[in-house]
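Could you join me in thinking about how sequence relates to backbone shape in a protein? Label the sequence line and the structure token line clearly, so we can match residues to local backbone shapes. Once you have written the record down, we can walk along the chain together.
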Amino acid sequence: MPLKYLAGDPRAVRWAGPAHGLLFVVYVLLALIAARNHRWPGREIGLAILAAVLPFGPFWFDARLRKAISSPPP
């Protein structure tokens, strides 16, 4: 996107756009597979999908999962 708007060169978007879309679909599919395998509640699935559309959301969600795994259950 910076090349497209700042440099006026849309060629990079031809490659980056589809790659970004593919990674988005892969993330959502893997989140759904993890949800099924680990029996996540609906709220957790919703947060995983919401994280997919927020900037840096997957990093936040990953940190959240790591914290939940490392802490003992109540």
About this structure: Residues 2-70 form one domain.
